[in-house]
């Protein structure tokens, strides 16, 4: 008796839906199961589409426009009257964009002939190399398959003993859905989510305080970039305490009380209207039925995989946030494509060295490859080239000259080892850096490539020229 599907993908987030599409493109009969619903309708796309990447960028864009209209358009010679804030309309726009993405994924499933089930999938057993999958939801069903790709993602980590109520103690989902601007907002964790959501609500009028336990902001970023980020974000009005140890979080009437030690060890207590807990995420495997087939976790609770995303079970794979590595949507997508291609007998490839990081604050922050600190720790000799956006013509016309581009190249071979940026639209500029690192380009290679003028990308070329001490516009 033949199996129902060649490949079953559990989870419809960036890793899952992309894996399903690629598997179908390669000729395999594929099903994707995802349990997310919004307003009673299936909402494929996972955390990224529903309460992560997409809605946060929608609010970042809206809040940026609001702040520019309120405070910055006069610089461009544009005079306007009183600027109003319509949070309900802003949130409706966010929801509309999310739904467009949900429907877009559903369309892609139909286009590529991927079967989609809305419900919760779990392993029901395995017999003769065939996995039996149960789906519970509006309609319950079972089917068999040969390969399984687990892409169930992650969930926010709560503060110990203080569950999310999404009224005062917020997760990423709750902070995105606020209908009123709180007078004060505390954020525990000044990582990507903390900085982006802090920026949104500060722009809209909230007094935002971030508590970061690490001695410096953005521990994974190049120190020079992180220091510039803290300077710029503090200048905008965010209050950022680094080296802060939060001792106690306690809901009180109409808000949340936080007791913390600052970097000097001074104990302080303060009450805030709202609290966003952004202290990381944990793999989501609830109800997966791992015990029914003997699927193993690693010591941190992630599904254990090797370098090719293979689990301990034959023909069972796992990708994205539910396995080791950075919790990034584009990392999950790369793994999804690679696994689908490996199942098809092809060579699936993921270069973890070149996965870019982006923080969508203003100015934006982006990096790929190694930092100066990593190179120094490994004893790798390198050259550095820095070019400020203040000297870039396009940045001047845009009125956003904060920040710089920094390129790190091997001192002997000139191979580009890392690229770090803070400034306007660096989320787009980082792609050139990723390509350079991937193909082992030298800084001279970038310097010799003609970049259109006037563009922000010229800052990348100038930084490459600066590696050899020959920047032309500085």
From TrEMBL:
It comes from the Bacteria. It catalyses: N(6)-[(R)-dihydrolipoyl]-L-lysyl-[protein] + NAD(+) = N(6)-[(R)-lipoyl]-L-lysyl-[protein] + NADH + H(+). The keyword Oxidoreductase applies. Pfam families: Pyr_redox_2, Pyr_redox_dim. One of its GO terms (molecular function) is dihydrolipoyl dehydrogenase (NADH) activity. Its EC number is 1.8.1.4. This is Dihydrolipoyl dehydrogenase. It comes from Oxalobacter aliiformigenes. The gene is lpdA.
């Amino acid at each position: 008796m033949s199996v129902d599907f060649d490949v079953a993908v559990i989870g419809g987030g960036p890793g899952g839906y992309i894996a399903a599409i690629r598997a179908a493109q390669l000729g395999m009969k594929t099903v994707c199961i995802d349990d997310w619903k919004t307003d009673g309708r299936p909402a494929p796309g996972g955390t990224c589409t529903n309460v992560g990447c997409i809605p946060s960028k929608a609010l970042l864009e809206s809040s940026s426009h609001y702040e520019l209209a309120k405070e910055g358009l006069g610089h461009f010679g544009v005079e306007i009257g009183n600027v109003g804030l319509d949070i309900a309309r802003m949130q409706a726009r966010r929801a509309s964009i999310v739904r467009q993405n949900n429907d877009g994924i559903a369309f892609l499933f139909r286009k590529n002939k991927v079967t989609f089930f809305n419900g919760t999938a779990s392993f029901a057993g395995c017999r003769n190399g065939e996995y039996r999958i149960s789906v519970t939801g509006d309609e319950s069903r079972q089917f068999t398959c040969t390969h399984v790709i687990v892409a169930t993602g992650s969930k926010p980590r709560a503060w110990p003993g203080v569950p999310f109520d999404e009224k005062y103690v917020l997760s990423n989902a709750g902070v995105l859905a606020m209908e009123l601007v709180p007078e004060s907002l505390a954020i525990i964790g000044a990582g990507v989510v903390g900085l982006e959501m802090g920026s949104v609500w500060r722009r809209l009028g909230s007094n935002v305080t971030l508590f970061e336990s690490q001695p410096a902001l953005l521990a994974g970023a190049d120190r020079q970039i992180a220091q510039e980020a803290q300077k710029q974000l503090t200048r905008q009005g965010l209050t950022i305490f680094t080296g802060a140890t939060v001792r106690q979080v306690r809901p009180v009437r109409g808000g949340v009380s936080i007791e913390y030690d600052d970097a000097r060890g001074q104990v302080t207590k303060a009450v805030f209207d709202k609290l966003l807990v952004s202290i990381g995420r944990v793999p989501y495997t609830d109800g997966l039925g791992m015990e029914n087939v003997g699927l193993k976790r690693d010591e941190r609770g992630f599904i254990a995989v090797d370098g090719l995303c293979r689990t301990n079970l034959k023909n069972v794979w796992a990708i994205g946030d539910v396995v080791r590595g950075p919790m990034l949507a584009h990392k999950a997508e790369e793994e999804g494509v690679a696994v689908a291609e490996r199942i098809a007998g092809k060579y699936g490839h993921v270069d973890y060295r070149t996965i870019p990081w982006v923080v969508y604050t203003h100015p934006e922050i982006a990096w790929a490859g190694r930092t100066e600190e990593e190179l120094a720790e490994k004893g790798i000799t390198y050259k550095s080239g820095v070019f400020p956006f203040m000297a870039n013509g396009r940045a001047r016309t845009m009125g956003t000259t904060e920040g710089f581009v920094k390129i790190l190249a091997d001192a002997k071979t000139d191979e580009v080892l890392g690229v770090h940026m803070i400034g306007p639209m660096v989320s787009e500029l980082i792609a050139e850096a990723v390509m350079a690192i991937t193909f082992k380009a030298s800084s001279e290679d970038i310097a010799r490539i003609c970049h259109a003028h006037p563009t922000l990308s010229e800052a990348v070329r100038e930084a490459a020229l600066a590696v050899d001490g020959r920047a032309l516009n500085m």
